[in-house]
What does this fold into?
Amino acid sequence: QAKIDADTDTATLKTDVASIVTSYRIFALFMPQVRLLTGADMLSEVADQMTTLSAKLQTRVTAAQSAGQNVSTLQTFLTDMQAKITDAKAQSLAIITDVSTLTPEGYPGNKVTLNTAKTKLETGAQDLKAAGQDARQVIEGLMKLTKSETTTGTPSGAMRLEKKPVIEDSDN
It folds into this structure.
């Protein structure tokens, strides 16, 4: 900064400004690094939220299975969902590990690591999208089981509530 402030002609100023990118490489590395680390953090946060959803869905699927429902398809979707979440979390951790240690001195050699991290971020996002689709399938399947349960009767061992007729007092 002091050198740029001391420049007296435009040609020297242009050379000094260009050296920020070519010599120091802070901007060439720093901005992509920040974007990738932010994306990895968001990936991890969404994966954690989906893990919580997955646990809740597993509880519901297990309850439906205990009630005698066939949940094999739902369990397949749930297993795939959990695998996709695990992979997205692994992608996130790999990005953080690889990108956080990069320094401007390593640029342009760091470009390979940055590009690999970008690919991992895209893969993690695709994993979470697929996990969301699996979750949707499980939710819809559970809703269908609930609807079929209400139209065909209650599952074995469940308590059935019946409406009792109201008897009116004929004295009034």
Q: What stands out?
A: The first helix runs from residue 2 to 6. The chain has a mean pLDDT of 85. The helical segments are 2-6, 10-24, 26-66, 72-99, 110-152.
